[in-house]
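Appendix B. One record, verbatim.
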Amino acid sequence: MARTKKIKIGNYIPRGYELGDDFMKNLKSYQYIIKYANNPKNGLDIQLRGKYINIYYAGGNLLKLSGTNTCEFDENYFYLPTSNDLCMTDIERLCSEDYINKVEKSKALKTLKLLGEAALKKKRELAIQIKRKLKKDRDNIIKKLSTCSSYEETSQVLEEMKSIMTNWKKKNGKKQEIGERLVQHYLSLNNKEFDADTDFVVLDIEYAISSNARYAKEEKREQQPRMDIIAIEKDTGQLYVMELKYGLDAADGDAGIKDHYDDYLATVGADEKWHYFWDDIEVLLKAKNDFIYENNKNDITLKKSKPYFAFILKEKKDGDEAAFKQKLIDNELSFVPTIYLPKESDYNNPSVIGHKLSKRYIK
């Protein structure tokens, strides 16, 4: 895949900026991984970062691709503890060189220490064995993926990885609950292409503003906002910054709606700053065309104008829509376009969890 010419942006790495011509050139299965991940039925969401690609599954990070051939799969996904086993965090503590000092941070390890230094040392030896086994399992599956020579082989390994990650969630008490992160994942997954039902293509999620960006907040510069969804409107090419709320509870407190709008005004919505953000998004779009989109099927043209701000409210219970509209009025934000997505009728259906982003939902 050819890479478009780099454009120097600033003292940081915009998303997709350093994915050069040699990106993944030594990974035989790379083209098959991308092909598999591009099929919405497989439930994977591809997102670009500065120097690498993340592939998400069910709201979590499944695979990281970087350099010319590096694949990363979290070794901890192989850890399936029983009720009597230590958690992974405590295993990490025990494996560290200064494990004695880190014991105090864990109730379970403190209790173990009361049994004596010998018992704690024995547990440390077991933790080291567990970590070695996890790394070995991780290395084996990465080797399998790296040596795949067909789409069918690659699909089988990725399905295995998804199964390992799913089992890890179940065994570690992380049930597939509907939450904001999962809704965000499926909104991205279900709005990859313009079609009859999609008016906004999701270009990126979890967009963290760099403190070095020329559109960063000046006040408390080290505390920069993170934007939930970056989208492009079908008819106009207008860029949108969207803040997702799952249920009315998510609109209160530190994550209140007024703060999000104020952050927008201070950064990507500022008259003197927005064009710097637009430049970064142009780089991201070009990189996605090079590395992700197949044959540039969306034919996206990005309008050079200040990005619009919008809310997405995913209803969690009856009455959320009316209450959110009142909250907008109370905060003098009733002019902000808001997409109101219905409640889930089927919690196991990703197309329902992540509805199409259609103008018919704007109220």
